[in-house]
Each structure stands twice: as C-alpha cells, then as structure tokens.
Write a structure and sequence with these properties.
Pfam families: ATP-grasp, PurK_C, RS_preATP-grasp-like. With 382 residues, this protein is α+β, with helices and mostly antiparallel strands. It has 13 helices and 17 strands.
Length: 382
C-alpha cells in the first residue's frame, strides 16, 4: 500500500503506530513541536507548532490521511486541515473529548452513568457545589489536563481556598469542572475502534491501576461480571456512534459496587491498550490505521491474559522481563525525566496463575513489588 499517514504528535503512540504500519507497507509523516520527539528516528518529522498554518499546509500536501497521537492538538487546526485532507478521528469528536464539560454532558445525554459534575466559574460556585456534592471532591481543569495534571482533590472545607488558589487562575484559559469523588473498587477502560463504514469492535475490558494519576499497570481481561463487561462496551459504542467516530479511542470508567461510572474518553490509541500488541489478534495501533484508511478492521480477540507495566522516569533493567517466556519490552528511546513515560513491558500467558507467577518474579528482580502487586492480586482472584 503506497499510502502515507500523517500523524500530529510524535510521541510513543505515534512511534507504535509507525511500527504497526510497517508490515502494511504504509509510509508516515510526523509532526511535532519538539525536535527530539521519540518517533522521529522512525519517520520524517516536521518540527513546527500545531497552529503554524504554513507548516500544516506543507504537511497536508505530503499525506493521504491525517490522524493524531495527541488529543490536545488545537481543534481548529484539525478542522482547518480537514478542509484539505481526510482527518480521522473527526475534529468535531476531538473537540468534545478535549473539554471535560462537553464530554461529561455528552455521557449524560447518552444515558451513561457518571459522577456528579458542575462547571465552575468562581470561588463561590466552587464552595456551593462542594457543599452540594459533599467532600471529598475533585476540581479539574476542563481542558489541557492529562495524567492527573491540573487537578486538586478537596478533602475538607479548608481545601476550598487552597484549590481556588491552585487552579482559580485557569478559569479563563482552560475552564474548571468540579466532580464528585467516586470511592471506586476498580478502574477499567474500554479500548474500541470504529471504522469509516461504521463497523465497531472492542478489545476485552482492561483493569487499570494509577499512581498519582498516572497509569502504572493494566490487566486484561479485567475482572468484571459479564453484564458489566457488556455494559462498558455498550457505552463505548454509544459514544462512538453518536460522534461518528473513526479510529481507536478509550473510555475510562470507575467501577463502584457493581456500578460503572464514566470518567473520560481519550480520542486516540491509549496506554491501557498497549497490551494488545502482543495480547490480541490485532493491536490497537494496527486497527487504528486500518480504521482511518477505510480498511476492514482486524479481530480484537485476545489470547489468554496480559499485563502491561509502565516505566516512568527511567528504563529499568530489561533482563528480568526478557527472561520470562512471555515477556516483551518496549523502550521508547526517550531521555529519562522524572515521571515521564519512557517505556513499558507486556507479559502474557494463557494461564492467569502462570502470569501472576511471572509478574511476581519480575517485581522481585526489579524491586517493584508494589507495582506488580495489584495485577497479581487481580489475576489470583479471578
Ligand atoms: P483523569 O485525568 O480524570 O483520568 O484522572 C486521573 C485519575 O485520578 C483517575 O484515573 C482516577 O484514579 C483519579 N480520579 C479522577 N477523577 C476522579 C473522581 N471523580 N473520583 C475518584 N477518583 C478520580
């Protein structure tokens, strides 16, 4: 296939898309404001700002279709590009997913359960809504937040001033939203794909564990009752169909006492779907490319059980993972930096207990017992 896919954003998600596209014979053009974007070594990279219309026009002229590895590309740049070249997912879907308030309003319209939420424009509104929702609750920026950034957890009335001091200045730039706190037992995500022809497929629901708002580990399939599993996938389908979505996306949900509550959607391939590279018939990266190119979607059937571990800050020693029969290593080639996602590992096994044993071993050898513990617990208690 002598087609060229343009990707706005050149991070690890773009890098894994390029790797998945190579066997399909695809070519790539990447676009990122950072000259050291980690997908740069794999394909030609345009280094320019996301609102640089001249650079965007030159980029559009080189590609057959444009997609994203980053959801905060200005939606008007995406819309402007869409007048020149097909852009998937549709910029209108990107615009909804970029704003927590529009996203949550959409979930509500579609009858998807979710925590209490309110648009917040002043300190007084914050105080009133915090009292109405009850404490704890979470103040978040509506736009431009990710991985737990731009959030303040209010635990007592005394925190209202502190939360306003921390985020009040953002009210004009990003907007603010207050959310009721969900005392969930589990966090899960649906990673799903919708084709240009409306075909829809979802991978088995994934269980996720976050540390300081950042994904630490994922296990698939998640431990969920069949009805919850079906409900989660049904919600994802409802959102995708409403938005006329094309490509892969993730819907993150809290699971509390058997009830699922939607948190947010990511309009792109997702960290909680990295296990699909080795753990399913077709990876999220390949299916995203198939979707945006209008090709038939691949099966999302998974093979056994899989666990993904994120590496933050710096890469650990690869030997303990590579020493496992089912261990797979992904080094994004990034410079180490505190909290930065620099790579991940996936371990897979047909047998949940054997996978738990392998994870325990890796945790011990890397001195990361805390990181593997929740995944081991989930695999042992299926
Ligand atoms: P987010 O950026 O909204 O995905 O938030 C990052 C993480 O913070 C989530 O994965 C949860 O672990 C936690 N979190 C966010 N919103 C809530 C909420 N309303 N209730 C409880 N925990 C939350």
């Amino acid at each position: 296939m002598s087609l060229t896919v343009g990707i706005l954003g050149g991070g690890q998600l773009a890098r894994m898309m390029v790797l998945a596209g190579a066997p399909l014979g695809l070519r790539f053009e990447l676009y990122d404001p950072a000259a050291d974007a980690c997908s740069g070594p794999l394909a030609p990279l345009t280094v320019a700002a996301f609102d640089d219309r001249k650079a965007l026009a030159e980029f559009a002229a080189k590609v057959d279709v444009v997609t994203f590895d980053f959801e905060n590309v200005p939606a008007d740049s995406a819309q402007w590009l869409a007048d020149q070249v097909p852009v998937y997912p549709p910029p209108s879907a990107l615009a909804v997913a970029q704003d927590r308030l529009s996203e949550k309003t959409l979930f509500q319209q579609l009858g998807i359960p979710l925590p209490a939420f309110a648009d917040i424009r002043s300190r007084d509104e914050l105080a009133a809504k915090a009292t109405e929702f009850g404490l704890p609750c979470i103040l978040k920026t509506r736009r431009l937040g990710y991985d737990g950034k731009g959030q303040f957890r209010l635990r007592s009335e005394a925190d209202i001033d502190a939360a306003w001091d921390a985020l009040g200045a953002q009210v004009e730039r990003t907007g603010l939203i207050l959310e009721g706190f969900v005392a969930f037992q589990r966090e899960v995500s649906v990673v799903a794909v919708r084709g240009r022809d409306g075909s829809f497929r979802a991978w088995p629901v994934t269980g996720n564990w976050h540390v300081d708002g950042v994904l630490s580990a994922s296990v698939a399939p998640a431990v969920l009752a069949d009805a919850e599993h079906e409900a989660a996938i049904g919600y994802a389908r409802r959102v995708a169909e409403h938005l006329g979505y094309v490509g892969v996306f993730a819907l993150e949900l809290f699971c509390r006492d058997g009830e699922l509550l939607a948190n947010e959607m990511a309009p792109r391939v997702h960290n909680s779907g990295h296990w699909t590279i080795e753990g399913s018939e077709t990876s999220q990266f390949e299916n995203h490319l198939r979707a945006v190119l209008g090709l038939p979607l691949g099966s999302t059937r998974m093979l056994g059980h899989a666990c993904m571990l994120n590496w933050l800050g710096a890469m650990p020693d690869p030997a303990p993972v590579l020493g496992q029969a089912s261990g797979h290593w992904h080094d994004y080639g990034k410079q180490p930096r505190d909290g930065r996602k620099v790579g991940h590992a996936t371990l897979r096994d047909d047998d949940a207990d054997a996978l738990a044993d392998a994870l325990l071993q890796v945790g011990l050898e890397l001195d990361r017992q805390d990181q593997v513990a929740p995944a081991v617990h989930a695999l042992r208690n299926r």
